[in-house]
Amino acid sequence: MQDDQNIANRAQISASVEEIAQVIAKATLAYDFSYKEFMEYYKMHIVKGCKKEKPRATVVEISARTGIDRRFIVSYTTAKETKLKPSKVDLIYKDVIAACEKRDTCLIPKIDDPESFEVICRKHANGSLTPKSIFIELFRQGKLRDHGEHYEIMKPKHHANKLQTAAEGIKATANSIVNSVAEEEWNQ
C-alpha cells in the first residue's frame, strides 16, 4: 500500500516538474533568453540554497546533493550573477559586424571571400551549425537579411520595445511561479 502511494507521489512530482520545465521552455522561446542563462542561475541558486540549508556542507556533499560537478561548486557559492559564454550565433554576429566595419559597409559576402559569412560560420560553428541555420536565426532576430550575393546587417528597429516586452513577460512568468509556490507553502 505504501509503495503504491510512493509511486503515485513520484509520478505527481515528475508531472509537476515537467509542467515547470514547459513553462520555462515557453518563456525561453517567447522572450529570447538562453536556456544556458536559466541553467546557470538555477545551478547557482540550488548550490547557494544547499549551502544555506547546511552551512558546514563540504563541496563534495553539495555536489552529491545537487548533482552538480564538484569542480564548479565553489564558483556557484561565491557568484553574485552568472558568467555566460556568448552563443556561437552571437560570436558569429560579432565577427560579421567587425568584418563589415573593417570594410566600411553593412554587406558581407555569403561565400567566396576570406571574410565571408560562411568562413566566419566555420570559424565558430564548424560541423555543429550550418551557415543557413545561423542566417535564419540572425534573420529571426532582425539582425541580418538576404541581399543577393551578400547578407545585410539590419539596424535594430524595435529592439528597446522588444526587450521591454520580454522583461515584462518573463517577470510575469516568474511572479506566477513564485506566487504558486508561496500559495502551496501556505496551504501545507
Structure commentary:
The chain is mainly alpha-helical and 188 residues long. It contains eight helices and three strands. It has helices spanning 2-31, 35-53, 59-66, 73-78, 88-103, 117-125, 131-140, 159-187, and strands at 107-109, 144-147, 150-153. It has a three-stranded antiparallel β-sheet with strand order 1-3-2. A hairpin with a 2-residue loop joins strand 2 (144-147) and strand 3 (150-153). The chain starts with a helix and ends with a helix. The model has no long low-confidence stretch (mean pLDDT 88).
Main features:
188 residues; 8 helices; 6% strand; mainly alpha
How are the SSEs ordered, and which strands pair?
Layout: H1 2-31, H2 35-53, H3 59-66, H4 73-78, H5 88-103, E1 107-109, H6 117-125, H7 131-140, E2 144-147, E3 150-153, H8 159-187
Antiparallel strand pairs: 1-3, 2-3
Helix pairs in contact: 1-8, 2-3, 5-6
